[in-house]
Write a structure and sequence with these properties.
about 15% strand; about 60 residues; single chain; globular; three-stranded antiparallel sheet
Length: about 60
């Protein structure tokens, strides 16, 4: 199984966040959404979950 990666550096932000999360897809999506809400102030919504899932990359 291919591990997935969510990297805040792929989405420019004012705070210059450098967090990278890797693991199984569902783990990464859940952690990345929680991070987006608690650190970046995003609202929890189905759109946030979908966008997060779409931006994942395969771990190299």
């Amino acid at each position: 199984m291919v591990r997935k990666v969510a990297d805040c550096r792929d989405t420019p932000s004012v705070m210059g966040c450098t967090l990278t999360i890797s693991g199984e897809e569902e783990e990464v999506v859940r952690a990345a959404v929680e991070h987006a809400i608690s650190v970046h102030g995003h609202e929890d919504s189905p759109e946030l979950w979908d966008e997060t899932r779409r931006t994942l990359k395969d771990e190299v």
